[in-house]
Amino acid sequence: RGTMTVGDLAKLLHKDASEVIKKLISLGIMATINQEIEMEAILLIAAEYGSEVEVKIPVEEDDFEKDEEKDEEADLLPRPPVVTIMGHVDHGKTTLLDAIRKTNVTGGEAGGITQHIGAYQVEINQKKITFLDTPGHEAFTLMRARGAQVTDITIIVVAADDGVMPQTVEAVNHAKAAGVPIIVAVNKIDKPEANPDKIKQELTEYGLVPEEWGGDTIFVNVSAKQRIGLEGLLEMILLVAEVNDYKANPDKRARGTVIEAELDKGKGPVARILVQHGTLKIGDAFVAGNCFGRVRAMVNDRGRRIKEAGPSTPVEITGLTEVPQAGDPFMAFEDERKARAIAERRAIKHRQSELGANTRVTLDDLYKHI
Ligand code: GDP
Ligand code: MG
Predict the structure, then answer these.
(1) How far apart are the first and last CA of the chain?
(2) Which of 138-152, 166-180, 256-270 has the lowest mean pLDDT?
């Protein structure tokens, strides 16, 4: 509009209003705190304080961490490992994910129609494994970029008829940077030209040395297409899980990560989330990213409606007011009012961080504020 009050200008400049008023008077402008002053005066004052003014925006600690109920050692129970599959294009990630999904269906749930909810669970030797079924690096990189650590174990797929390729190396580097254990699945061993030893040899250069050569990396030969070696791969995952002793407290408000979210024509905003701590229940108020809501319905990876979901369980939920983003943190709160307040605070914080945590306000910026 071209004007702003003396009080607002003082706030923007991080100065006392009385000091700004004094400056105005010295410039021959008589003003009170609530008085609207014109652009020229605003610029004069800004120039008096130097054309650039430092505006500090405090970066708050993460709300969810702070609000999460603390765990006692005795509350922690074993949970299924969460596994991601990475590797070079065409080495067989999608085929392997599909093959594993079909390997096994929990006894009672046999025949259930599998549904795409961003992740699925299989069971072997009465133990569950959760797979994130967005293959590729995007999901992993995106999640990590947003500070979400969802993966416990990474499977790196390398085609035995090909070799270590750029995206293979990238996958190794991602997994190492995240400190996540790696299992190498040497795929396509059904092919006559397959040469698993060549893959092992090549990967030693990246620090992945097979156990039989004195290293500590697990290599498993598989054929995703012919479904060879899949049980062995799953057993190796369970072995790594056992060694790492993954645990979570199922007995508290849920906290997790949004894996995917979209606006569904019929259902409205839906989010596919991985519960990582606690148990999510129908009716729970929650925050997902900057959105809030109340869990209206939950569907599992078999397309079944469920009432609650514990640690490492992927679920699709409805009951959001907006669509969150993949990688957004998720947490249940005591009530909807609290959830709404937290979501609003996060939205403001988000806008602030887009401006930069430590913004230098220039005359140009001042114009924008007016
Ligand atoms: P992605 O790009 O890593 O997801 O690879 P895909 O799963 O799409 O597989 C790429 C191609 O390799 C497809 O034509 C698959 O049918 C084929 N493929 C995948 N796994 C195997 C395997 O174990 N053996 C053979 N012979 N072909 C495979
Ligand atoms: Mg694929």
Answers:
(1) 6
(2) 138-152
**CB-neighbour burial class of residue 30 (10 A; exposed 0-12, middle 13-18, buried 19+):** exposed
Query: Given the structure tokens 């209003």, which residue do they identify?
Result: 17
Q: Virtual CA dihedral for 279, 237, 177, 138, nearest 10 degrees?
A: -70
The two three-digit tokens of residue 292, written as one number: 């809030």
Helix (H) or strand (E) holding 272: strand 268-277
Task: Assess whether pLDDT exceeds 90 at residue 147.
Answer: no
pLDDT digits (tens, 9 = 90+) for 33-91: 888 877 667 777 777 776 454 433 333 445 577 778 888 889 999 999 999 999 999 99
Average pLDDT over residues 189-213: 96
ipTM above 0.90, yes or no: yes
Q: What pTM did the predictor assign? A: 0.79
214, two tokens: 């004195």
Q: How far is the CA of 258 from the centre of ligand 1 (A)?
A: 28
| Nearest ligand by distance to the CA of 221 | 1
Ligand nearest to the CA of 88: 1
Ligand 1 pocket check for 229: Cβ under 6 Å:
no
